[in-house]
Amino acid sequence: MALFFAMTTPLYTYAQENEEPQKLIEALTYEKQPGFANASSKIFTSERKFTISGFGEVNYVNFQGSKDKSSEDMELFYSNLFRTGIWLGYKFTDRIILVGELQTEYLTDQFQQGEFAFAYELVLDFLINNNFNLRFGNYPMGIGWVNQNDEPIGFKSVNRPEVERLIIPTAWMEFGLLAYGYALPKLEYAFGVTNGFNGPNFSSGTWIRNGRNHNMFERPSSYAFNGKLQYGDEDDFLIGVSGYYGDASKGYTFSTEDHNPYAGEKLNSNLGMLSAHGIYKVGNLELFGLMAKGWLSGTEQLFQIHQEILGAETFGYYAQAAYDILPFFNQNTEWKLPLFVRYERLNTHQKIHQDLQGLDYPFAKNDLEVVTVGFNAQPKKSIVLKANYQIRKNFAGIEEPNQVELGVGFIF
Predict the structure, then answer these.
(1) Which of 91, 97, 118, 265 could form an SS bridge with 104, CB 3.0 to 4.6 Å?
(2) Is-contact 50 77, C-beta < 8 A?
(3) Which fold has domain 32-411?
(4) What digits encode the pLDDT tens for the residues 193-216?
């Protein structure tokens, strides 16, 4: 027996020394799959059949004055946010990939009230070639920028820009079918069909946000189309346009017992949206801009459901400049410290239907101008500490205090 161990031990040691080490944790490559952010793209570049990835963020908001609770939608006045997203990816084959996410968030406000919410994505990608692929399931809309880059390292401010919360309702997922790929090198396209918005749930202060559908298992009662064209590389120069159009009626019919002009009729409401964005980076300077324009028909009918006065037209835009100052002090560090400033303008009620004008009815209206200044401290690309101050004004005559915001976020 001693002779056996004496003979086999050198062979075992040689095998150990020459065995390829197993990676217990597979690092992010920061290569994005079209339509997904960094962490959610992990399965597409992984050598494994199964991956786990995700993100987390904790945000704090301090209002420099009284925040008017003019809407029941906590999106307008929360003071603390805890958000996580966990991604599970599985490769049936190298060309058939399943991706699922559970995103949870808990909000609290200065009135000591709390609200828990969750959303999920579940998509099956069929990778045919670089020019044409299919995605089926509950996927993120390609409208704007943050909706497909919603991980905390994907935007500079503590909270998502107001334009991409109140006009473009990030995070926004819908159930449907999407075709995507590259028509030319660096020219990404996407075109999809999904279920439509739930118009009866719209709220004046957050426009269409409460009409997002989170249930992929119910039969669609209305349909919509979305599309995107994007050219370039976000680490250099990138421009993109995107759009959405669809039925927002959700099959709603006014009861014959309703005491309004539409009793017994079907709701007829359609939603359209266009957005454009651009990025330019040179050295330590990063410039970013985005605009969005929305149209909503049938607002006079929607008012009869919950007495919410909704904008028939909306608009929003912002421009942002960021500069990493750390190279001035240390060029041999992995840390980054970009300072940024952003100007933002939006109006959830740019135009109101003539039948609703002049109504003596209180409603939340966001005609906002927001200037945000702050910084990001990144010890690694996957971790960010954020702080910013917002100078806010609501031209609708509603008190809008300035805000101090602090946050921490990470991806894995």
Answers:
(1) 118
(2) no
(3) Porin (2.40.160)
(4) 999 999 999 999 999 999 998 777
